[in-house]
Amino acid sequence: MLRTLPITISSIDLARTLMKLAGMICHSQVRAAQRYRLAETDQRALEDIGLSRGQALAEARKPFWSR
Questions:
Q1: pLDDT tens per residue, range 21-33
Q2: Which of 5, 15, 54, 66 could tie 62 with a disulfide, CB 3.0–4.6 Å?
Q3: What's this model's pTM, rounded to 2 decimal places?
């Protein structure tokens, strides 16, 4: 006979997990917005920050979950 232990999730663990998830979603949204703005940045501004158009577009094409 196989016995298993009951798994319980305390409200503190659940709250901590939900807060981490909310933080991840927030960071992903910020990252996506920054990449969108980077793709829209003009050539002069890109030169000021030391990026080529190709580098900016490569960064902008990354998925939102990629760091």
A1: 999 999 999 999 9
A2: 66
A3: 0.71
Q: Is residue 40 part of a domain?
A: yes
- What is the chain's mean pLDDT, rounded? 89
DSSP letter for 42, please.
-
Count of structural domains, the chain: 1
Indicate the Cα dihedral angle 22, 26, 31, 33, nearest 10°.
Answer: 140
Contact 39, 56 (CB under 8 A): yes
Which of 66, 59, 62 lies closest to 41, judged by CA? 59
